[in-house]
Amino acid sequence: MKSILSFDNYEVIETSYRFNPGFKSVGEEQIIPDFTLKIVYANKKKEQAILDLGLEMGDFELKKNSFYVKARIIGNFSLEHDDALDDRARASFFKANAAAILFPYMRSLVSDLTSKGSSSSVLVLPTMNIVRFLQENQGIQEVLLDDGDSEAEEKKSSEETKE
Fold it and tell me: The organism sits in which domain of life (predicted)?
């Protein structure tokens, strides 16, 4: 059975890793990742989209934590045309399925990035329901690329995400 959602490719847009070997921690560091997801639709039909998945963890100044990681990847996705799908259904494919497809690439990137540092510990992000995490933390933003009023579309989308 063939899926109507196609994962065309992905690219690493940004990586940053900082480590303070002299940091003295009390116990194990508990750091919650901060994820963002921006979905940029190519047009009103929402049959093509670029997903921009971001992650930030730790303390940039390295005063509260021993490390800081920032990463951003984008994935290009497309949906086969299907008259049975309305705009909400198409958007749902990108929000849920495409984000879930992209997340393992972020996990791998973060592990690879932190393995290159001088730290003895490699950061391995846990498997998680990334979509639920983003929804609970209002981390999904949607933008319509070819609309004259993309700001209004972006606001509307952000409000729908909060519901």
Answer: Bacteria
